[in-house]
Amino acid sequence: MLNKPIIDRINRPLHDLRISVTDRCNLRCEYCMPSEIFGPDYQFLCKDQLLSFNEIERLAKLFVELGVKKIRLTGGEPLLRQNITDLIKKLININGLSDIGLTTNGIFLPKIAKELYKTGLRRLNISMDALNDDIFKRMNGRGVSSKAVLKGINIAQELGFQIKVNMVVQKGINDQEIIPMAEYFREKGITLRFIEFMDVGNTNGWNYEKVKTKKDIYQLLSGHFDLEPVESTYYGEVAKRYKYSDKNAEIGFITSVSESFCSSCTRARMSADGMLYTCLFANKGFDLKTLLRNGLDDAAIREELISIWNHRHDQYSDQRISNHVDKRQKIEMSYIGG
Ligand code: SF4
Q: Side by side, which strands form the sheet with 191-196?
């Protein structure tokens, strides 16, 4: 463990690492993996291109030495990666790591939740954009019923997982689901987080007109529920949280578009093929897989990671707000896991 945390060019420490374990998904949500682009001929990463579990573990250990406390596994859909529980078991045992979570669309949970729980994993973020079946089926591009996700959520909750449900809200697409989703998850005591629709990648058809901001959503919710703000519990906490005054449940907002939070962004992201990105909206990554496969030792890789973080100055969302974003080719959300 280093004596001093490493910091980037605007003094942000490295605390969180999101690791994508696959670029594949069983759904085709329009804002993440639109079926027109990710069709039957799309070339996903092949097995040799993916980091092995041993490679992921080795890199994760180095990141933890440099200050990472939280790891989140993402995809694509991470539960599509074969034997994912073996990787979780390895990561959970890393000394110095205080938290590990997994983001999923929830559809495979009925099959695998028990095994996941046995690994020691306790935190799941489950993506769900609508309760209404017609809307949900249309949005996920594969006609999958919302009942399939609800079943996964119920099973995971019964096992004892701490669950957050993430809803990406788009005007005219699923904003009529805000209240039904809030009512449903409030009753279940599950935190629901509203995510502002963002311009991640180049293919999701984003424009500002489609964004339902935190302010819009909060206004709507406060007409139905009595909400109280909750103080953030740690530096760099992304969600702005509120609790229901008459119920033990919370909501949160991820306000990347309307109230950006780059100044406290402590996250690095690693793709399934071992590219490291220092921002969700990056156009360039650092090839860690080649360093590993060229036989560099831990000390040399550690130096490389320190140098990458020390040079980091990403502030894309702040720049978007001040209208200073360049027209860059960005990495796709399905590749880096959002
Ligand atoms: S835009 Fe980039 S730097 Fe800003 S909060 Fe998002 S990931 Fe972090």
A: 227-230, 240-244, 250-254, 191-196, 162-169, 123-127, 99-104, 70-74, 16-20, 267-270, 275-277, 286-287
> What proportion of the chain, given as a percentage, has pLDDT over 70?
98
Query: Would the CB of 244 count as within 6 Å of ligand 1?
Result: no
Give the residue among 115, 87, 113, 69 at the shortest CA–CA distance from 21: 87
The DSSP element (H or E) to which 3 belongs, if any, is: none
DSSP assignment of 164-182 equals EEEEEEBTTTTGGGHHHHH
What residue segments make up the domains of the chain, in order of their start?
A: 16-336
Is the model's pLDDT at 129 over the cut of 60?
yes
Q: What is the pLDDT of residue 43?
A: 96
Name the residue of 267, 313, 320 whose CB sits within 8 Å of the most ligand 1 atoms, as the mutation to test its pocket.
267
Sign of the torsion formed by the C-alpha atoms of 314, 319, 320 and 324:
negative
Query: pTM of this prediction?
Result: 0.94
**16-336 carries CATH number 3.40.1000.20:** no
Q: What pLDDT is attached to residue 286?
A: 98
Higher pLDDT, 145 or 256: 145
* Ligand 1 lined by 262 (C-beta under 6 Å): yes
Element of type H or E holding 153: helix 146-159
C-beta 261 within 6 A of ligand 1 = yes
- Rounded to whole angstroms, how far apart are CA atoms 75 and 30? 16
Ligand 1 centre to CA of 95 (Å) is 27
Instruction: Please give the single-letter amino acid code of residue 190.
Output: I
Q: What is the pLDDT of residue 2?
A: 62
